[in-house]
Structure formats: C-alpha cells, structure tokens
Amino acid sequence: MADGKIHIFDTTLRDGEQVPGCKLNTKEKIELALALENLGVDIIEAGFPISSPGDFESVQEISKVIKNTTVCGLSRAVLKDIESAAAALKHAKRPRIHTGIGTSDFHIKSKFNSTREDILERAAQCVKWAKNFVDDVEFYAEDAGRTENEYLARVVEAVIAAGATVVNIPDTTGYCLPHQYGEKIAYLINNVPNIDKAILSCHCHNDLGLATANSIAGVIAGARQIECTINGLGERAGNTSLEEVVMVLKQHQQTLGFYTGVNTTQLNPMSRLVSDTMRMPVQANKAIVGANAFSHSSGIHQDGFLKDAQTYEIIAPEEVGADGSKIVLTARSGRSALAHRFQKLGHQFNRNDIDVLYTEFLKVADSKKEVEDTDLRELATVYEATVVS
Ligand code: KIV
Ligand code: ZN
C-alpha cells in the first residue's frame, strides 16, 4: 500500500470560528494554534485574512509563533483576497494559501451568474495568482459534493496544471452519502490525468450527520488529507470532528493502513480548551470527548464492563486523555455496580448484604437521576446500624 499518512488539516480557527457566538480574539487564537501544533495536526487554517482587520492580525501573529506546522489562510478567487492572505502569512515558516470558488451549478448560476467555462478559468487563475506568493497552494471547489463529476474533473485538472499542491473537494452542504462521496474521490483519481501531482482533501459538513463517515470514505477512495475541527464545530451542523476521524483511523489502522501525526492523549484536553475558549459546551454523548463517552449506566453493561473493560469499551479513556471510565448509578444499575461502588467507598458487603441494600438503593434511584456517593454512605450507615443492633 502507498504511504498511509493522512494529513490532518484543522480549521477550528476558520470554519469552526464561523459558528455564531464562537468568535475569538487574537490572543485566544494564538493560544489555540499553539495547542493545535502541540496536538500534532499538519495544517492549521488560521483564518480568512481579508474578512476583517482582526482576522488578518490573528493569521499574522499565528504565523510568527508556529514553528513546524503549516499555517494556512483562506481567500476567495479574488486577487485582493489572495494578496491579503499572502501578506498575513509573510512570517509563516510553512505558508499555505487556500483559495477557490464554487463549482456546482447552484453556485455558478445563483451566486456568480456565470458559466462553467468562466468558472474553470477563474479557478486556474486564482491558483496562478497565489503561486506568485507561496509554493503551497490549496484550491477548494466549493460545493463539490453537488458538482457534476465530469465538470469537477476538468476543474481539478486545470488547477493542478496551474500549480495547486492540494485540491479540496468540499461537501459544503453535507449532502453526500458516504458511498457517493467516496465514488467522487475515486472518479477524480481515475479520470484526472495529472492527479498524482496533488493531494486530494476531504472537507465535509455535517448537515446529515455524515461528515465523519464521508471523510473516511474519501480517504479509503484515495484522498490523503482530512479537514476537520475540534468538537466538530463549524457552519450550521458543523464540520468533520477531528477527534472522531483520528480515532476511526487509529482504531482501524490494521485493516485500513492509515495513520496520523496526532497525539491522541491530547484529544480530551484540546476539546475542553476549545469548548472553554469558545464558550461552546460539548454534547454529553459526543464520541471520544463527550462527558458520557466512557460512562456505563445500565446493569448489564456495568456487569460486563467490571468483568472486562473491553466488553463495552473499544478505546481506553487514557488513550484519548479522558478522565477515566465511570460507573454511573441509576435505577437501571445492577448489584455488581452497587457492590463495586460500596467497595470503593471502603465497605466490604457480602452477597446477602448487597441483596438487602439493593432494594433500598432502588428506592433512592427511582427518586433521582443519579445516585451519588453521599446517598450510598447514608444507605450504608443505616444498614450497618440495623445489622449491629
Ligand atoms: O465548506 C466549504 O466549502 C468551505 C470552503 C471555503 C473550503 O469551507
Ligand atoms: Zn466548510
């Protein structure tokens, strides 16, 4: 198999920051960029320099402090955008300009009131402009998910001929099914003559909850870069979640043969940092980084987990920097979980004790969402007093 390295392109600071309420100032962006470099991502999309003086400054300051990771600035297929991105990236050790244009008929007709031939020319032109400033130019074909494959292949061929090093195939509206997105990537690989001169990139949105599945389908079909955000933040329903794709690739490394440079033990600390800085809570049942990702609540699961953690956990919490597995006591919990928790609190009860205590426990559990240690201590005190007297 060819090299299975998947480049992780983080766009938390650009697409992620587009979420209403998540705007960051330069200081916050620098802190997150340094944490992303430490996490091991390959590319940090630091912002959209032409969009505001504040974003220009953020990209400029991030470019000064990031040492090893590629720093990328977004632009439209417009010369002044590209000049602005190039100026903001001036101090970057590894600068990349990310430029592009909409290629679906929705964009060509409704947004640009244009034609396919004109857009094809503008696509190649913007890459040529960007190449005057940096070697590393990524082109995005916005709404590629709804762009007809034959035309998309012509665009991809033209931008690679113009010097694009990476070609981004965004499913901007999160429309594709995984097999369709995979087929689109495979179509480009099989039909664009100069495709080996560039890397194809997956940029999937989550409108149908398929962003992670689509990105994985894309790399299986031959793409070698995934664009993603911490906690899956992004426009509308969000972007591909970084922690999910990284862990999918790691979990299935044996069969798929892919790997990333991400230090997975930093995933939970990074998720918390982004959530706190952006003031955007993470849903409890979010894969890998949600509060319940390693919680076990029902009796059947708890019993199996206590016998062997792998019965109900495919990832060890420490592998992703989570606090640890949790046995949550609820009215659905069983005797083994109750005995385990009493033991942790220093009470050695035998089977008969637990049978009696379990009846009392259920009365408490039915009256509240979660039984806490204070409830258990109270149950134990009352029981021990009864047994002794
Ligand atoms: O979703 C999208 O198409 C984008 C591009 C600007 C890359 O974010
Ligand atoms: Zn996007």
TrEMBL record:
MF annotations from Gene Ontology: 2-isopropylmalate synthase activity
Enzyme class: transferase
Keywords recorded for this protein, A-Z: Acyltransferase, Amino-acid biosynthesis, Branched-chain amino acid biosynthesis, Leucine biosynthesis, Manganese, Transferase
Pathway(s) the chain acts in: Amino-acid biosynthesis; L-leucine biosynthesis; L-leucine from 3-methyl-2-oxobutanoate: step 1/4
Pfam families: HCS_D2, HMGL-like
EC number, as in UniProt: 2.3.3.13
InterPro entries assigned to the protein according to its UniProt record, in alphabetical order: 2-IPM_HCS-like (IPR050073), AIPM/Hcit_synth_CS (IPR002034), Aldolase_TIM (IPR013785), LeuA/HCS_post-cat (IPR054691), PYR_CT (IPR000891)
Domain of life: Bacteria
SUPFAM superfamilies in the record: Aldolase (SSF51569)
Limits of the Pyruvate carboxyltransferase domain: 6-268
Protein family according to the UniProt entry: Belongs to the alpha-IPM synthase/homocitrate synthase family. LeuA type 1 subfamily.
Protein name: 2-isopropylmalate synthase
Organism: Terrimonas ginsenosidimutans
